[in-house]
Amino acid sequence: MACSSSVEVLRPKGLEQAAPVYETSPKDWADALAAGLAAVQKYGRADLGCRTMLDALLPARDALVASLAEGADACTAAAAAASAAEAGAAATLGMAATAGRASYVPAEVLRSVADPGAQAAAMWLRAVATAVRG
Q1: Structural domains in the chain, sorted by start
Q2: Which residues form the DhaL domain (predicted)?
Q3: What is the full DSSP assignment across 20-85?
């Protein structure tokens, strides 16, 4: 299994000559994820345990940050984030909804299904881990 470089150059396709070049590191991506999630928490007034996409994304952020702090490469850190997101999404099965769209759904309906937003976030992060692995 090969892993992409720890620093990637991002350029819009088709604009390789004219577009500016952005160099990013796995830590840059982790910092961006953390900042974005902080904004979602602030303005959405949701947190871990509210049965939202945050139930997948917050554990993923924590796993990503911890993996990178331990010296893991981008592949390993992305895989850890994806696994944490999948576990977080699975944990929403039967969880009471206190925020987001699920809070409008009757509790008896929520008992048998995990939160769709959390599941989608976990699938997205697994796709990212797969892409980083190359």
Answers
A1: 26-133 (1.25.40.340)
A2: 1-130
A3: --EEE-HHHHHHHHHHHHHHHHHHHT--TTSSSTHHHHHHHHHHHHHHHHTT--HHHHHHHHHHHH
